Each structure stands twice: as structure tokens, then as C-alpha cells.
Amino acid sequence: MNTQEKLAALEDIMELDEGTLKPETSLDEIEEWDSLAALSYVVLMGDEFNRKVSGQQIRAFETVQDILDTMHPVE
Asked: What is the pLDDT of residue 75?
């Protein structure tokens, strides 16, 4: 999954228009980044990347790039 596909997946989770998110976007600026979006992200990570993500990791996210950095399969 390339960066554009990852951004599209996050936009889908947050029900945002395509092209809305940029890696440098602060999560504080995104009203749609809420507990439901975070839960959807956890499911995506399990389904697409076979990864488990903790609440502590999610709370540490500050930008979209922080999320993108976690979106890779377990090695």
C-alpha cells in the first residue's frame, strides 16, 4: 500500500473527501479524528497490516504522518 492509498484509507475511515488529508496535517485540526475513527484505524491495522496498536500509541499521534508511519506490515 503506497502513501496515497494509506491517505485514502484514512480519509475513508474519517468520512473525508478524497485529497483532504496531507501527511503534515495536525490531528487537532481534524474534527473527524475521534474515538470511532481511532477504533476503525485499529481494525484497519489488524486487517490490512496484521498489526496490533495500543491506545497509548494512538494517543501519541499528533499528525497524519504519525499514523502513516505505523501503517506497514509486521516483519
From this structure: 66
> How do residues 18-34 score in pLDDT, each as one tens digit?
999 999 999 999 999 99
**Cα gap 23→69, rounded to integer Å:** 10
- Indicate the angle between helix axes 35-49 and 3-13, nearest 10 degrees: 140
Neighbour count for residue 10 (Cβ, 10 Å): 24
Residue 63, strand partner residues: 26
> Length of the chain, please?
75
pLDDT value of residue 29: 95
Q: Which residues contact 58 (CB under 8 A, 6 or more apart)?
A: 38, 41, 42
CA-nearest of 4, 69, 2, 75 to 41 is: 69
